[in-house]
Amino acid sequence: MSPLPEAELVRSSVQLYRYLLRCCRRLPPGPIRQHYRHAIRQSFKVHADEDDPERIQQIIKRAIEDADWVMNKLVSLYYRRKN
C-alpha cells in the first residue's frame, strides 16, 4: 500500500517531486518533516541531469517504496506516542 493513492499515477520526475512533498505533509510537524523535505529537494538536485528513461523509472519506483516505508514507520510511531 502506498502512502497516498496517487502513487500509481506518478510517471515523471515532477510528478514524483510533488507526490513526495504531499507525503511530507502527512508526517508529524517539526524537525522530522523538515528533514524529509530537505532530503527530497537534495535528491532531486543530485538526479537532475539523469536522462535515461529506464533509470528514471527505477528511481521513481524506489522513491515511492521508500516513501511508503517512511510513512508507515513514522506515522505509526507518532500516533503510538500520542495515544
UniProtKB/TrEMBL annotation:
InterPro entries tied to this protein: Complex1_LYR_dom, Complex1_LYR_LYRM9, Complex_I_LYR
CDD domains: Complex1_LYR_LYRM9
Superkingdom, taxonomy of origin: Eukaryota
Transmembrane segments: none
Domain Complex 1 LYR protein positions: 14-68
Residues in coiled coil: none
Name of the featured protein: LYR motif-containing protein 9
Family of the protein in this entry: Belongs to the complex I LYR family. LYRM9 subfamily.
Pfam families, A to Z: Complex1_LYR
